[in-house]
Amino acid sequence: MLINNAAIVHRFSFAADEQAVAKAAEECSVNLLAPVRLCKLFLPLLKQNTDAHIINIGTGLVYAPRAAYPFYNASKAALHAFTQTLRMQLPEIRVSEVLLPVVDTPWHRGQAPASAISAEKAVKAVLRGLRNESREIRVGKVKRLYILSRLWPALAVRIINRL
Question: Catalytic annotation on 63?
Fold first, then answer.
């Protein structure tokens, strides 16, 4: 089993930040290229296993981007598309994606938004999704965001950006 979980995010204004391109390169390297490289590196080993599994950790922001995270949204959306493609190209390997809402982690330095779920709640939902052999595990409010983004995409974006 390969679990691609690492991610970084920079909160900034693309137009105002002189380091925007460097931040884009860093986020794309960690959030997209690292999982791509790891999948490629471990693919021969995974193909030898009859119960191989790749799990990519994503975000509900693939459905409605948050303005403050221009490259986090983009890199995770690219990982989402890559994960879907892996499923099509590697039918012999189980490929899952976990799409998380805001989770109360140390990244928030004790000031997680009120909408954040606990790490324990996130883990329980992920394990439930894995037991059910779900291919896309939408945790918590991401389930509603997914539906809203399909029915009223502009409203989904407005709601995400009010948080």
Answer: no
